[in-house]
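User: Okay, second chain of the day. Same drill as before: sequence in, structure tokens out.
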Amino acid sequence: MQFSAKQIAGILNGTIEGNPDVTVSTLSKIEEGRPGSISFLANPVYTQYIYGTDASLVIVNKDFEATAPIKATLIRVESAAAAFAKLLEMYDQVKRNKTGVSKQAYISDSAKVGEGLYLGEFAVIGDNARIGNNVKIYPQVYIGDNVTVGDNTTIYAGVKIYSDTVIGSKCIIHSGTVIGSDGFRFEPQNEEGQRKVPQIGNVVIEDDVEIGANCAIDRATLGSTILRKGVKFDNLIHIAHNVEVGENSYLAACNVIAGSTRIGKNCMFSGQVGIVGHLQIADNTIITAQSGISKSITKAGEVHMGSPAFDANKYRKAYIHFRNLDNIVQRIDKLEKQNKQQQG
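Assistant: Same drill. Structure tokens below.
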């Protein structure tokens, strides 16, 4: 789709300097701008590129002052960064505005689907599934029996959703993610070995949750594994059976949360955090990268670091001593030798 400078200025409540009829159909970085694209300048570090860019349109702050001729048409706004972010969101919505059901997709006769459905090639919707309005289901997605998917949710190619899963509205699930696979639970037996414990619960994902690529979210043994409203996951995250992640918590890549742990609201976990099972993590907890949590965190708003993790300020102080440990040992050895000599 093409948009004119006049149309974009109207959307962004901006003013035009240059040709109001110039059209663009794509977005670009200012240093890689090409004809027919729109870019923006917000960081002064990139100011040099505006004088040579081939982008047809550039969004700038109202107070931007040019020191040389500029080929591109300018749109002046209060905040170039915020305006461009708005355009990115609109562009993404247009790009994802797919509709129609492929002839190579399958919908069970007992399933119910809403209006505006997009169902890609080789996607499957199982028995008694309930799919809301304006849902986008990309190719090769499997949606199992009795699954519920809320309005305006997007499920990207290759996602597998096991039976009885409940997914809310305005969720985004990226490729390769598996939701509702069995929790990892076995009971010791005699010489016959371990016996698998059936996992008959489900997964519940509330509204406005985004799950990155190649995540695994296990179904509960009994009850539900729950991701509360507004949770955001990076890629490669494993959530074990009966875990609950509180509202608006953010988990970076490679987090592993063991079974039955409860994570509070507004938590932020950096990459490669590991949490053992049956713990309570208080609201607003921050955990730094590669930390291992082996006991509950009961005080809200703390920052934890290390493995096993503890208060970040104490960890930093302890780490200073650890780095000086060799010098400390040498000093102790020296003092012991001096003491022996004085005693001898």
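The chain has a mean pLDDT of 94.

User: Thanks, on to the next one.
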